Amino acid sequence: MDLKLFDAKSSLIGPKGMMLNPFSTSNFMAASISSYKGTCACLSTSQGAVTLVGQEKYEVETCSYRYDGSNGTSPSIFCTEKRVLDAFDDEYGGVIVNPDKLPFDTNVFASILSSSLSVWRTKGKKGIWLKLPLEKCDLVPIAVREGFQYHHAETGYVMMTYWIPNGPCMLPANASHQVGVGGFVLNDKNEVCVLVVQEKHCAPELVGLWKLPTGFILESEEIFTGAVREVKEETGIDTEFLEVIAFRHAHNVAFEKSDLFFICMLRPISSQINIDDLEVQASKWMPLMEFVEQPLIKGDKMFKKIIDMCIARIGKRYCGLSVHKVVSKFDNRLSSLYYNVVDDPTSLDCPDDSCFGSYT
Known about the structure:
Blueprint: E1 2-6, E2 12-13, E3 19-20, E4 32-33, E5 36-43, E6 50-68, E7 76-84, E8 87-89, E9 95-97, H1 106-122, E10 127-133, H2 140-145, E11 149-154, E12 157-163, E13 177-187, E14 193-199, E15 214-216, H3 223-235, E16 239-254, E17 257-268, E18 280-287, H4 288-292, H5 295-298, H6 301-314, E19 322-327, E20 334-339
Parallel strand pairs: 9-10, 13-17
Antiparallel strand pairs: 1-7, 2-3, 4-6, 5-6, 6-7, 8-9, 10-12, 11-12, 13-14, 13-15, 14-18, 16-17, 19-20
Keywords: Hydrolase, Metal-binding
GO molecular function, one term: ADP-ribose diphosphatase activity
Family: Belongs to the Nudix hydrolase family.
């Protein structure tokens, strides 16, 4: 609780909007203010001098005043207040702290964070989300001492959380999956060939292996656009997305995260290979059967199954999942839904018949 002094020039708003001089005994009355935004100050002397403790603006959650003019001293009004970090409520009964309004001073932050938790606990709030930017990393140890836990970190910030109610924390965990894509690209200029690459950096047992172009999806990137981008970066070949042929789900892959890997069939719209990726040693069009007969490919049951599905797709004996843009009423957002459509349920006639390039 901080102590705040109003000098003789201060005024209060009365119950009917009247401006009152707080030091006039005839006009004095108790006042209560529910919220106030301004520079926080603390008591210095009874003559009304004020010392600032910070230039940041914080919300004053509760503020009560009392008149003190005993023993012949100059009458003053003292204010006790709880300062609260600038924040807004989320839709689940929690609080999201505004990272742009956090103080830089560690002592000020420590005081206001403790006060804020007290207020939020009284209000029955649940989860607290505290995003600390890189330039305010000195505040991290203070939050840890208050009981905050790490949630996740990005290049420019660390996200911390605090669960107020007794019992297990119900806040959602950090993202649990990484998403990768592989591009299966065929041409039939002379014979059926698949676009493959050799990586510069790989495990010793994979040296010399010709593999599909692969990579990770970027933040906010679609699966189908990520597959097209990865093929372009690793081979220089422009492609068009056709279908998701299959996907693999594995666990404890990198940093104990799970992994989703989508095999996408792409149609080439150019044929000139131009490597512009530091991770790729070489790239070429390789006869499909030669690719399949590589020992590491031939001996891998999962990958052999994927190749079987790709070959079945060429023969129209298997349909993958094509992308469709839809809007859900639940969130009014445009999303990508992957599914296949067969107009005649008695026959398997996949859309976009040709999987091969149309370049010359």
